[in-house]
UniProtKB/TrEMBL annotation:
Keyword Transmembrane helix recorded: yes
GO cellular component: endoplasmic reticulum membrane; Golgi membrane
Subcellular location(s) per record: Membrane
SUPFAM superfamilies: RING/U-box
Species annotation: Theropithecus gelada (Gelada baboon)
SMART domains: RING
Membrane topology field: Multi-pass membrane protein
Name listed for the protein in its UniProt record: Ring finger protein 175
Keyword presence, Transcription regulation: no
InterPro entries in UniProt: RNF121/RNF175, Znf_C3HC4_RING-type, Znf_RING, Znf_RING/FYVE/PHD
Keywords noted in UniProt: Membrane, Metal-binding, Transmembrane, Transmembrane helix, Zinc, Zinc-finger
GO molecular function: ubiquitin protein ligase activity; zinc ion binding
């Protein structure tokens, strides 16, 4: 540490001797001094951001209502690519390894689901995989939320855990749960549409191309072996309010993972899941919010606002 002994002391602090908290405080102080006196410019930048945000919301809503299929595909691509960019840029290798493993397995599942003719084992394989992703993402989300609440209530002090460490764990776990929950649901919907249309019991618009027997699952097209009142060794048989029966993995994958709120055969409406709405919000936050911020930064740079 070097300093002047005059009335106005100027300190030159070596960052190697500072703790992480002191280095953070020093950085915030420098940032405050840099932006002091630029209040009018900051107000202008905030107004630009709010205007672009409103315009982007209107454009995205109209796009989704008029061309929902292209909107969903582009959003899914954004959800897949944007985190990869930040992962490589910020050296988040743990997330990159999980992202790579998820991408490889899901690509194989998507390949199997889009083949014609469709193998009889493919629908069960697809829905088992995405049901597993749903359960894991839900578990990660719950653990992350509990870890955040655990830290905010100060319970980490009883276990001598630093608040920053426990909060970081909670935020990372919550993000993992929500992100892979969104990705799993979107890929599952694509697989659901392809497989159901190939089998013939479901059509996005119009009547089914095949009649459904009482002992056939309309999702996978395979025979139902376990009766409704029997306990299956691997899975049970489920019956909806419209009296159509399905394999447990198939209907869970169709309803929960694939975001389908209708019966695969007769399209009778069912309950809505709040968890899906939370994932829809995160989908916008991850896929489109970086685009909005990039547009705002481009406008600020063109106007000389820094």
């Amino acid at each position: 540490m070097f300093f002047d002994k005059g009335p106005f002391c100027v300190f030159q602090i070596s960052h190697t001797k500072l703790s992480a908290e002191d280095a953070w405080n020093l950085q915030q102080e420098r940032m405050y001094k840099m932006h002091r006196g630029h209040e009018s410019m900051h107000v202008e930048m905030i107004l630009i951001f709010l205007c672009i945000l409103v315009i982007a919301q209107i454009v995205l809503v109209q796009w989704r209502q008029r061309h929902g299929r292209s909107y969903n595909l582009v959003t899914l691509l954004q959800m897949w690519i944007v985190p990869l960019y930040f992962t490589i840029k910020l050296y988040w290798w743990r997330f990159l390894s999980m992202w790579g493993m998820f991408s490889v397995i899901t690509s194989y599942i998507l390949f199997r689901a889009t083949r014609k003719p469709l193998s009889g084992r493919t629908p069960r394989l697809v829905y088992k995989w995405f049901l597993l992703i749903y359960k894991l993402s839900y578990a990660f989300g719950v653990v992350g939320y509990l870890a955040i609440m655990f830290t905010m209530c100060g319970f980490n002090l009883f276990f001598k855990i630093k608040a920053r460490d426990s909060m970081d764990f909670g935020i990372v776990s919550l993000f993992y749960g929500l992100y892979y929950g969104v990705m799993g649901r979107d890929f599952a919907e694509i697989c659901s549409d392809y497989m159901a249309s190939t089998i013939g019991f479901y059509s996005v618009s119009g009547l089914p191309t095949r009649s459904l027997s009482d002992n056939i699952c309309a999702v996978c097209g395979q025979k139902i072996i376990v009766e409704l009142d029997e306990e299956g060794l691997i899975e049970n048989t489920y019956q909806l309010s419209c009296n159509h029966v399905f394999h447990e993995f198939c209907i869970r994958g169709w309803c929960i993972v694939g975001k389908k709120q209708t019966c695969p055969y007769c399209k009778e409406k069912r309950t809505h899941f709040l968890y899906g709405q939370i994932l829809d919000w995160l989908r916008y936050l991850v896929a489109w919010q970086p685009v909005v911020i990039g547009i705002v930064q481009g406008i600020n740079c063109s106007l000389g606002l820094e």
